[in-house]
Design goal:
This protein is α/β, with parallel strands linked by helices. The chain is 28% helix and 21% strand. The chain is built from seven helices and eight strands.
C-alpha cells in the first residue's frame, strides 16, 4: 500500500481553529473544566527559520476514484481543484473547501483555489491506485500494539444531526451516531487505544464530551470524525 501523509499533523494544525477537536482535545477540555493538572507546552517560539511553515494537505490512497469523489464532493461539499491522471491505473486529485469566509463559506472558482493551493490549509489529496485492494474497513487504523497508523479525518460542521442525515442519504456507513456512547471497540480499533490502558479510564475522563460526536467511514473505509461547530 502506498504510504500517505499521516493525519495526525493535520489535526495538530487544525486545533487553533477547531476547539474541542478530537479525543485528545476533548480530554484536555475535560481536565481544564475539572481542575485536573495538565502539562502545557513551554510556549517557546518556533525557530525563526521555520516561520511561514504550514501543513498544506494530507493524502489518502483509494481503490475507487469515482465513489470517493462522489462522497467527498457531493456528501461533504469539498470542491475539486484539479485531477492529474498519470495513466489508467493511477491519478491524483486535490480537494479543498474555499478558504474565504468563516469555515470556508466564501466562494472561489477552481482556478482561484488552485492558484492559492500552496498558501492554503487543510487540502485533501486523493491518490487513486487501481492496484490498491478494496476494503470495507479502516485497514490503516493505528495498531493497538504500537499505536502507529492513520486514525481519522476530523470535520467541524454547523449541524452534526443534519450531517448525519446527509451521510445516511448518501449511503455512508455510520460507526457511531451522534448521541451514542463512545465504545471500547471504537477506541481500540480507530484510535489505537493500547491494551495497557482501560477505556474506562478515558471515558471516565472525557464523559459526555464524546457522545455528540458522529463517526462514519468513507467509501474506502477511512474514518471521519464530525463535531459541532462552535457558536
Amino acid at each position: 500500500m502506498v504510504l500517505f501523509k499521516c493525519f495526525l499533523t493535520f489535526t495538530i494544525a487544525a486545533l487553533p481553529h477547531f476547539s474541542d477537536a478530537c479525543l485528545g482535545h476533548a480530554l484536555l477540555q475535560k481536565r481544564q473544566l475539572g481542575g485536573f493538572n495538565i502539562t502545557y507546552g513551554d510556549s517557546t517560539p518556533q525557530p525563526p527559520e521555520t516561520v511561514g511553515y504550514n501543513l498544506n494537505h494530507l493524502a489518502i490512497t483509494v481503490p475507487n476514484l469515482t465513489a470517493t469523489l462522489d462522497f467527498y464532493i457531493n456528501a461533504l461539499g469539498f470542491r475539486e481543484l484539479f485531477t492529474v491522471p498519470l495513466n489508467d491505473d493511477y491519478s491524483f486529485t486535490y480537494l479543498s473547501y474555499p478558504q474565504g469566509g468563516r469555515n470556508g463559506t466564501g466562494y472561489q472558482t477552481a482556478q482561484e483555489m488552485t492558484r492559492e493551493k500552496n498558501n492554503s490549509e487543510g487540502l485533501l489529496e486523493i491518490l487513486y491506485s487501481a492496484v490498491f485492494p478494496p476494503s470495507d474497513s479502516n485497514i490503516t487504523a493505528p495498531g493497538t500494539s504500537n499505536g502507529v497508523g492513520f486514525s481519522h479525518l476530523g470535520f467541524v460542521v454547523p449541524s452534526v444531526v443534519d450531517t448525519q442525515a446527509r451521510l445516511e442519504k448518501f449511503g455512508a456507513k455510520i460507526v457511531k451516531r451522534a448521541g451514542e456512547p463512545f465504545t471500547e471497540e471504537i477506541a481500540r480499533h480507530y484510535f489505537g487505544l493500547p491494551a495497557s490502558l482501560s477505556p474506562q479510564q478515558i471515558l471516565a475522563e472525557v464523559g459526555a464530551l464524546l457522545d455528540p460526536f458522529l463517526l462514519a467511514v468513507d467509501p474506502s473505509g477511512y474514518l471521519l470524525e464530525i463535531q459541532q461547530q462552535d457558536p
